[in-house]
Amino acid sequence: MSTLLIYILTMAITPGPNTVLSAANAASVGLRKGIRLNLGMFLGIAVVTAASWAAAEFLYAYIPRGERIMKAAAFIYLIYLSYRMLRGSLSEASAESAGFLQGMLLQLINVKVYLLALTAISAYIMPMSESLVWKAAYASLIPLICFLAGLVWAAGGAMMKKLFTSGRRLLSILFALALLWCAFSLISS
Question: Which of 5, 13, 40, 87 has its CA 20 to 30 A from that of 112?
Fold first, then answer.
């Protein structure tokens, strides 16, 4: 159980599309408004976890091909987010655009979430228990821990809100570069 928790926490807290967007969004609109994005991410991760669990055996046969498609979609989306960040559209005026739906939809093309869920389920959860109830309980840790890790990044971003309003352009560039790094890391791995 401890290795499962360490794996999920490590995957959830390390920089990626969710953490960078959580921090940037909360830095722009504050934690209170930014929480909508994180709630959308939570729901999206729960959907991906359920789909991964239900389809683990089937997907394993097609992972190399499916992974390339997911990586390409995620790469394009991350480039788009980076572009929006550079244009400054993730600002106070457009807080709705970084909301619940965007957070949820990001998870459907976020390769890191699929890999997290598939690995946790196949390598840790399925071997840990035969009980459907325990498997569901263990699998529910994935979206919960990811949500909490996203809140940590959002809180950090919210603390930077004052800095973000005075140095918006510089921080937009830094967040955009972080998203670009995530995008290019996807296609280089």
Answer: 87
